[in-house]
Amino acid sequence: MIQAASGFAALSIPITDAPSYAPSVICDKISGLAISNAILAGLFDRQRTGEGQEIEVPMFETAIEFNLMETFAGAAFEPPLGKPGYARIQVRERKPFRTADGFACIMPYSDKNWQDFFAFIGRHDLIGDARFLLLSERSSWFPFLYGLIAEAAPLHTTDEWVAFCDEANIPCMPVIDLADIGDDPHVKAVGLFETVEHPYAGKYHSIRRPASYSAAPFELRYHAPMLGQHSREVLLEAGLTESEISDALCESDPKVPDTQTL
């Protein structure tokens, strides 16, 4: 609902001629980040002033702000100088490209990047072409340029593209499935995942927080609670008496569900 209402779904119209949803609960997660930032700012203000305050973070408005960060463009002026949008991104040809054995994001960016790319794919006729020498000129030719990448990408394997791009300092990355992300060398090197054991559900993969602190290393202190596991504590904190809670709860301990339903 929020993706539709905030303009998020409509961002794909210039690309696919139809609105679409991001394949993620992205508005929920954006709002969570906004909430945590707002709370931290509120705590900082309380530390300085000694006074607290009520904080409201609406998902709808948060998603609109998030979308307009880079797409407000000419519509930010009054009267408008243009429609909202980001031409370099809202191009149907801008996407992961199919290589000879998979997919890769191949993204020449700088003036030199494009000249090196033209040489690699054998389009020497485009080297030095005034249309592509500078970003100010290239910005009108993104569909054509990304189309060149799409044509050339299947002629080489993903590893060959990565090798060339690394040497030429061109941004490039293989498209990695989430199911394989744990095998990524960098992910392994930084210890992003660990296998832990839940007292009821058994072993599972835990992902540490990406942020790190020199004086407070990440530590998993609690597992996800089972349904009703903390009902008694929550109700006591809400002011109910032990007898009232016992009357309200059928059992003092939560039932452990079958792991297949977790």
UniProtKB/TrEMBL annotation:
SUPFAM superfamilies: CoA-transferase family III (CaiB/BaiF) (SSF89796). The keyword Transferase applies. Coiled coil: none annotated. It holds the Pfam family CoA_transf_3. GO terms for molecular function: CoA-transferase activity. It comes from the Bacteria. Keywords: Transferase. InterPro entries: CoA-transferase_III_domain, CoA-Trfase_fam_III, CoA-Trfase_III_dom3_sf, CoA-Trfase_III_dom_1_sf. This is CoA transferase. The lineage of its organism: Bacteria, Pseudomonadati, Pseudomonadota, Alphaproteobacteria, Sphingomonadales.
